[in-house]
Amino acid sequence: MKTVALSSISMACAILVAACGGGSGGGGFFGGGTTPPPAAASSKVDVKVVDGAISNASVFLDLNENGALDSGEPTAKTNASGVATLEVPNDSVGKAPVVALVGTDAVDADTGPVPVAFKLTAPKDSTGVVSPLTTIVQHMVKENGMTTADAAAAAQAQAGLNVSMLSDFTANSSADGKVAASAARLFVVSVQQYTSTLSPAAGSTDLSGAVITQADIDRMILAKAVETFPVMVEVAKSPEVQAACATLGADACKTEVTARASEVNAASGLTAASLPLVVAAARTPVDNATGVGGATLAFLNFGDASNWYYRVFMASAAENTADANGNTRYRGYSRAMTNGSFVEWATGGSYARRGDRHWNGSAWVTCELGQQNVQSKRESNGNVAANNYCDGLELSSSTRSEVDVSSKKIADIVAVIQASLPNYSSWGMPPAGYTGGGTANYGAAIFPAGSKLLSQSTTVSQTAFAFDVTSPLRSYNDAIAAGADTRGNPGTACSSPEANAAPTIPVTTLEGMIAKYKGTPCIFGTHFIGNGIASPNPSEWWGNSTLSVGLLGTAPVLADPTTFMTGNTYVRFAFSGGNAINYYSCQQQHVNRSERNCVQIGTGTYSIQTLGDSRVLTIANPPAVASQLDYERIFVENGGQVFHGYKSKMRTTYSTRLNLPATNAVFTQLGIPTITP
Fold it and tell me: How many Å apart are CA 45 and CA 268, to the nearest integer?
């Protein structure tokens, strides 16, 4: 017997042709007419199972590819090094994937005894290593019909890893290897958390009325973990995780990974409440017909017939007809009615931001109302391989599943939508600022034939530089920007009326911005806000001389507070000489939202590049807390002004949608004009 990789086939007769024949010759290769030994009927195949090296896992060759260990399938247990040796018939070598069942009797060399069972797999032509990363590759091979090489390359590119998805990352001690190891650990913990939360639902019914099996649950868990893996990689790269997991099995690492996996799972939309939807949707082939018009409702707020907001994507029959390159087109609209006044725009979180400009690779452009977006034709498995949104603002891929909700009560399905994702709890509820007493009333109305509820995930792989044309930068005069300690010296510029108002001096160049913002605060003694709430002493104001990276936290800013600070955190920066910058963590004051008592939390650098008719300043090495923001801060000099800008981070987002018949049924019930694509 020999030990080989499954992708290698030893064929003695193919190599020693003369020795395998039945000729009558004399000595031959073996001499003296001796009959050669028979070719081996099987080969020994080594398979290494890693998160850390996992011992006592059951490894088998999944000949019928059902994910279960069946009679007659070669199997073995892993040793202390995570290696199992399978005895594989030669005619089965390279013909089936390998599966590792990691039970609660298994031990991970990095993290100890396994608390919740899980399963790992590897493709049939790459079985030397079985890991969370090879599991992702095998999922893509099975679900998307990809070759192992293509799936591995695509998964690595989507995740932004610098380590092969098929390699033993535990043997890679580089920084990239540590990121891969941390991401793999997040993947496993994510699967374990899902399993603990969702497995009790086995035996219940999905939205279609069919029984949910454990196999259904396992399939949903794996699909969701694969979808969110790019997010896990970003988390693994964060300074917090890298610091905590310098030793992967350390208690600090376990705590950090557990917490961050919980955050990823909570944002994914796969919960006990959403499980009946996603399982039912996964059973249904996706309607990918072209040549017909349609629309999907991505979000709805409703107060009354004169106060509502919705986000919809639609395509006419012509737009939904694939061109010679296999691409279709669609348009996105945000529409709002406020006190009977109607507005609509193409993209952005508000009507005021409809004019945001972005760099499409050759020019600065806006996303115009009615602009056609281009995507590859949606396949029958629900996948869109390539989507170009708003002329290069975002490039992405997506996958969609659906379930028929015809004849179901609208009110019941709205409740399902509200429970499907954390940010969908306000779906159908009044829009922000609505003060009326009305509320959505669906009564006993049901959805008409052809109504479908859709579940979609979108993975953004590339984003553009963009800037807000409504926010040109304004500064204070040089004296205020220079800061001062006003305690005992109340005549400084920091105490002037101008310092108590919004800044008014236009910043016209990036160099002017760099010269102005040096991190020199105005320092005050005790003062009072609201109902006599006292400030700290000193009370330092940094808004005069620092720039915003972003705001963390959602605590309200109150006019009559009980504390001086809100509890929210500003992340800000200032220029410190050369191309260096300092980062700060600042508190937020109630009443006026001012930036108070900043503490330096890191250093970085900036760089400037010219793109078309504009210049872009980017900042590097942001502090760990900035990883919570969903964008990177930039500044754009354009037309004699400097604007706040941004570059959205690569991410995976989730949405629950209604198709056109279902959307129009909801709109008819609420008194909103129906949609015609």
Answer: 38
